[in-house]
Amino acid sequence: MEKNIILSKLKIASLNAMQEAACDTILSTNEDVVLLSATGSGKTLAYLIPLIQIIDSENDHVQVVVLVPGRELALQSNTVFSDMHSGLRSCCCYGGRPAMDEHRMIKELKPQVVFATPGRMNDHLNKGNIDSMDIKILVIDEFDKCLEMGFREEMSKVVGNLYNLERRILLSATDTDDIPHFVRLGKNTRLDFLNDEEQIPDRVSLFSVKSPEKDKLETLNSLLCSFQDQSSIVFLNFRDGVERTNDYLVKHGFFTSAFHGGLEQPERESALYKFSNGSANIFVSTDLASRGLDIPDINNIVHYHLPLNEDGYIHRVGRTARWEASGKTFFVLSPEEKIPEYIKGEPQEYVLPAERLRPAQPRMATIYIGKGKNDKISKMDIVGFLCKKGGLNKNEIGRIDVKDRYAYAAVARTKLTQVLKMVNGEKIKGIRTIIENVK
Description:
Layout: H1 3-10, H2 17-28, E1 32-36, H3 43-54, E2 64-67, H4 71-83, E3 90-93, H5 99-109, E4 113-116, H6 118-126, E5 137-141, H7 143-148, H8 152-161, E6 167-172, E7 188-192, E8 204-210, H9 217-226, E9 232-235, H10 239-251, E10 256-259, H11 265-276, E11 282-285, E12 300-303, H12 310-317, E13 327-333, E14 348-349, E15 364-369, H13 379-388, E16 397-402, E17 407-412, H14 416-423, E18 427-428, E19 431-432, E20 435-438
C-alpha cells in the first residue's frame, strides 16, 4: 500500500520531516535504524508506514515483532496499525490476561505483526505459540524505557529466540549511548531529531501556580475549575497520591479518571477509555501516563508533584502540544517549593480566579451496549441505531469501540438522558439488549 493511500485513510495531509526521513531510510536501505525524536512527534507512524510497504501480505506468519514497555502502548500501537486499513493483520500481547486467550487469538487471526511486552513475547515463543521462522524485523519502541523498567534480560531472550532477524529499528524520545550488545545492532543509520536547545516545544506555555498551603488540593481545585471543560492531566509521583487526589476531585464534582500501575488491567483500560473519548476531562496519574499514551488534544499538563528529573518532565509535557498543536503546563508550588533548576524558560505566574468556579462537565458521556462483534454488531450499526432510535445527529456521537460481547459509545452529555429514554426497550439489529450509562 502506497504512503499517500495510508495518509488518506488516516486523514493526515502530510508527514513531518522526521517521519519522512524515517520512512525513506527504512524503505531505501537494509540497515538497522536508530530513531531519536521528541515525545509526540509521531514515531509510531514513522515506522509503521514503511513496514506496511515491506510486509508480505501473502505470508500468514508473523513477520514483524514490536516490543514495547507496557500494555497501553501495545494497545494503542495496534489501534494505529488497524486504523491504516492496510489489509494486514496484527495483534497485541501483554501480561495481566490469560496467555491461553492470546494463543487462541493468534491461531485464529494469523497476525503478520505482533505488538508485545518482552515477558509475554518470550512466553509465546517458548511455548511455540508464535513461530519465529519468518520474523525478519524487530522494532523496540521506547527502548530506553524498556531498559529503565528492567526488561534487559527479557529483551535479550526475545532477541536470542529470533534466529532469522535481518533488521532492527530502535525508537526513543531521549538520547542514550547504552544500546545493549544483545540487540546485535549491525550497520545502522542514526536519525537524531532531538534538539538539545529545545527542551520542550515552544508551542508549550509554562506557568507557575502558588499554593498558600502545603496541601495543594484547594489550589488544584481552583486551577482545574479555571480550565472549564478542557482536557487536562494531573501528574503525581506516587500511587497513594493519585488515589487521594482523585477521591478529593470526585467529591468536589469533577469528572476524572485515575490511572496508576497498581490498578487492575480492566480498571486502567476503563480509565484511559473514558478520558480519551471525552467522558472524563481530568486524568489523574503517576508518570505511567507520561509515555506510551497517544491521546490527542490534551490542553493542560499539571505538575501537582514536581517531576523527579528532567527526563520525567520532558515526557510529561510531551503529552500535550502533539504534532503541531499548542498546550500549557502548570507547576503547582507550595510555599516551600521552587521551580526545578533544569526547567529551561521562566514560567509565567498564573493568577487564579478570585471567585470560586464550579467544575465543568465533560462534553461527552459513555454508554454501554450489551452486544458486540459476536452478535454481528458494527460501529455503523451503533451509529444508525443512536441516530434513528436515540434521536442523535452524527456530530453528537463520538468514539465507538466494539468488543466481542459488548460495545461502548460516546454521546453528547447534554443528550444522555434523552438517548437513554428513547432507546429503552428498543432493539439493535433486531436484538434486545442492555443500554446504560457508564459512570
